[in-house]
Please model this.
Amino acid sequence: MDTYNKSCQIAASKRQLEDAKVLYSQKRWLGSIYLGGYAVECSLKSLICYEEDEDNFKETTPVYQKAWDKVSTLWRNAELRYSEELGTETDSKDFIEAAEKLHKLFLHKQGIK
Model:
């Protein structure tokens, strides 16, 4: 399975956002932020494929790949992924709301509900 395929990215984005909401409901704040970011990542990659008329993120122009690498480096910091802390409800809530908005926009631009 090629996980860089546009359809794989769309499906993953939906699953990760659902999981982020479940973690939020269980007061697992940092985990919900992390998976919310993952949902945005996948939906953004699918949007870039859509905009460039490619079926695979690997086939898109390097300018988008480099931009994504820069953004994801900040989001994927080790403190967020490996922390023993739960984080805060406020940060988690704000992040999930922002992730939902971006996710919806990225999919809407592709004609996906």
Notes: Residues 6-108 form a domain with the Four Helix Bundle (Hemerythrin (Met), subunit A) fold (CATH 1.20.120.330). Residues 29-51 form the longest helix (23 residues). Helices lie at 6-25, 29-51, 62-75, 78-82, 89-108. The CA atoms of residues 54 and 60 lie 7 Å apart.
